[in-house]
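Hey, can you fold this one?
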Amino acid sequence: MTLSNVNLQGLIGVFVVLAMCWAISEDRKRFPVVLTVGSLLVQVGLILLLFGAPVARSALSGVNGAVDALGSSAQSGTSFVFGYLAGQAPPPYALERPQAVFVFAFRVLPVILVVCALSALLWHWRILKWATQGFGFLFQKTLGLRGPPALAVAATIFMGQVEGPIFIRAYLDRLSRSELFTLMSVGLACVSGSTMVAYVTILKDILPNAGAHILTASIISAPAGVLLARIIVPADKSETKAEVELGDDRRYSSAIDAVIRGTGDGLTVLLNVAATLIVFVAFMALLDRLLTVLPPVDGGPITVERVLGYAFAPLAYAIGVPWAEAHAAGGLLGVKLVLTEFTAFIDLSQSATGPLSPHARVIMTYALCGFANIASVGITVSGFSVLIPERRNEIVGLAWKALLAGFLATCLTASLVGLAPQDLFAAP
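Sure. Predicted structure:
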């Protein structure tokens, strides 16, 4: 494996992201140098370990197999309810455009239900509890977090932006301002287990090892979220160490209870995703219609996606995308921020023969894999306000900074991935 000039381009992204967060820091004199070095080393170490070590590569291949099994199993259940719309059986009519049979509502959203139910079952069997405690211990020792916030950060990787902090609900009112901001930022930098499989379902045809990339992206973006949050809102000097403890707010009376309640939680997530996509895509279409009154630019009409492409092209270039592809990649970053990562991943899945090269698609997968979008800000504010209503004003005041930290955290992760040799990510 050898580095190239293209790989070194990602260093620009690392510098730009850190500089942007330092520029809006609440105390620029307290830049966390040790944490910066430690966090970047943790991320690089995880990338090299997960994709470089033979045992880890075999495990990641197993992840892809498990994800494929989950996706096909979800399709079987969907097919039983919705018939050929699930994509497993041929339609009862001739098709002029076979690709039109892929219906998001029937091919992707049902996966969320299955994974939510499975996650609840694995939690009841204590498998996810052990994994969460393991990552919590790792983050406590390597990132300097106290026990409860470290545990919540670890839980967020698997459970989601609001569900993760629930496990330390008894501690939330005692968290410092910096710790609270860290949890909000990490929640927007990562994704939940329920949506990971859905993303893989979208990307598997254009991205080899899609399951491994999505899982790795969510894991290594957590340290990035912690780092950027600590730069913007430096750690409170009054913070003291505490042991990692696991809250017991999420308890199930039996395996059946876990599956039923997990399915109910999945239905809530599914409806929220569907409703958000409908509304925000509609808003985007409305804005495009309004922009038709403007004259064409560079031979094409002005659209929201083209404007976002120009606005975010420099950032896309900084994280490692070649300049010839930066406009298309910048458009994806803008779509992810303004709409949702689902919309951006759908657009990315259509780039197999488009403007993005295979390596650029890998970089953009990491840059897009996070909940940092405008709709998620509302989810974060409402979720944390329910958990700690007495700190609602503080939460609202930190929300938009958390959005920026979460968005830039995935860009930092993408920059580090862009620095890695391309053959590191070759399919085994």
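Residues 1-5, 242-246 have pLDDT under 50 and may be disordered. Let me know if you want another pass with a different chain boundary.
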